[in-house]
Amino acid sequence: MLLPDLLIKNAKQLPDKAAVVFKDEKISFRDLDKKSAQVAARLNRLEIGPGCRVAIISESTLDSVIYFWGILKAGAESVDIPATAGREMISTALQECKPFAVVVSNQQFINLTSQGSLAGFPDLVFISDKPASDANTTSLGTHTLADICKTESIENKPLDIDENAVAVIIYTSGSTGQPKGVMLSHKNLISNVVAANEYMNLTSSDSILVSVPLYFIHGRMQLITHMNIGGTVYFSNGFQFPSEVLKELAQYKVSGFSGVPYFFTTLLRRSKLSSTYLPDLKYLLVTGGAFSLKEQAELVAAQPNAKLYMAYGQTEASPRITFSEHSSDTNKDGFCGKPLPGVRIEILDKNGTQVPSGQKGEIVVTGPNVMRGYVSGDEVSDGIIDSKGRLHTGDLGFVDAQGQLYLVGRLSQMIKSAGERIFPKEIERVINDIQGVAESVVMGIAHEMLGEEIVACIVQEPGAKQSELDIRASCLKHLSFVRTPHKIKFIDTLPRTTTGKIDHQALRRLFDADCEK
Amino acid sequence: MTMGPEFELIDYIRSQFAPDTGVELSATTDLVGNGILDSTAMMQLVLWIEETYQFPVELEDISPETFGTVQRLTEYVQRRTAGRRVG
């Protein structure tokens, strides 16, 4: 089975039902099927098909959803690049994955091209929102959905690819500081939504409010999950205003809401979640980071009629590895539950030997959800995929006698802040390029709302006098707000251990002292 | 010279969230629509307002009607601090 088969099935069985709903527009499964077929026809006419890539660098819009399904129906690979990534990061990803075309909003198109041509930016452009004027539609190589729907055929063409073909590439933070393009096949993604649904038992009567962007696997998976069951996806206007999200939950009468821990912490602290009766809400799904037992209890108390699920995973695992439902039995630190059906977990020691249950080690994963690889092709040389095809998560944990996973820490330096995966090198590269900076170390320190907060220790060159604000301003030119260090310490030298490695513990203590003040 | 909340808010938002991003920041700029405030930036702004102007931001006040532009925020801060000296 291929991903477009899910849409074609719903168009036959539930033609008039809303597939996707935005604040001011919506589309039925029938129309989504037709319009995405027209996008595929246009792409095929431009000789974009199997083996070709089309990048989506867009906030979530109805047209961007139609393009996504159109790209898949053309047999091509849809590449998600965060719209909020800076020009350089976007350019790096584009130069690596070499897309034949790009889907962008009008504003993003202007932002990316107004300061001169962007390396890697393709000539073929598909606009993902309604054009403010006809200016873009007449440009050579620029396409709009309105034009495509006027001229292209609505017939779905059979695809000559198999389920192992790459369907979606998601660019995410990599340990080297360069973005990593994670290649996921049709089989990877379908196996993961089907397996997760064995826990959740969602049906076509279910619906969800999506607040996370589609360029994160979390958002993309909700779209695919609901295409699998024939459920409606409602898109939130954004998470800037928690009370507005609460209103959307009530207004749309959705049965589900999923988010990163930060969303739920914010809803608990900054909205009237606990005093709002949401009779249609059946479940809440927390994914993308640790959610404390205290907050789990608060969330259950705030919405006692909704089940609380927690998923553990990563983009490289399409993304879910384990799934658990909150209960008094699961109310233990680090509890992640059992692996999804078909997914196998092993815990390895430093030598790569499997350890017995109860013993701590690195979590490695095997299963139909493990990615095809990175676009860069270095998943084996980087040790992410080993010779047995196992995915090394970089997370530390143990499995109990019942086969249930517990997370206890990280082997890698990955930081999770507001649900986003961030590697220090990505930020250190930006800081080290600032004039006057000799070297820097970026870390994540515990934060009540964000999970972890980005902080930086900076050694300046002799005579350099950059202020904290200067550094932050320089970072914000290249990084999103959540990736910009929230606290900065200027120090004379980086402390090192006796073996010459940077002493992160000593650096952390600098920020501990702050908290005690 | 004493600055009013509007200048302080513009100064803070520009330095913290939008330095040199090419977006013109005035009292009427749409802070969310123009991508200046994402969800985490919004919460930092809420905390800063609480700390700087010494009043708790009520839950229902974190809304587009109050936080949509600097102008609306200024009116909100002035309303909440009426009767005491601010800035």
Your description of this structure?
- The complex is a heterodimer of chains A (517) and B (87).
- Chain A is of the alpha/beta class and 517 residues long.
- Among the domains of chain A are: 3-15 and 26-161, Rossmann fold, CATH 3.40.50; 415-516, ANL, C-terminal domain (GMP Synthetase, Chain A, domain 3), CATH 3.30.300.30.
- Chain A contains 14 helices and 26 strands.
- Chain A has helices spanning 3-13, 29-45, 62-73, 87-97, 106-113, 145-151, 186-200, 217-229, 242-252, 261-270, 293-302, 424-432, 468-476, 504-516; strands at residues 18-21, 26-28, 53-57, 77-80, 101-104, 124-127, 142-144, 166-172, 180-185, 207-210, 232-235, 256-259, 283-287, 307-313, 320-325, 335-339, 344-348, 361-366, 373-374, 391-399, 405-410, 415-417, 420-422, 437-447, 451-460, 487-490.
- In chain A, strands 2-1-11-10-12-13-14-15-16-21-20-18-17 form a 13-stranded mixed β-sheet, with helices on both faces. In chain A, strands 7-6-5-3-4-8-9-19 form an eight-stranded mixed β-sheet, with helices on both faces.
- The longest helix of chain A is centred in the first third of the chain and has 17 residues, at 29-45.
- Chain B has 87 residues and is mostly helical.
- In chain B, 49% of the residues lie in helices and 0% in strands.
- Chain B contains four helices and no strands.
- Chain B has helices at 5-17, 39-53, 64-67, 70-80.
- The interface between A and B is medium-sized, with 28 and 25 residues.
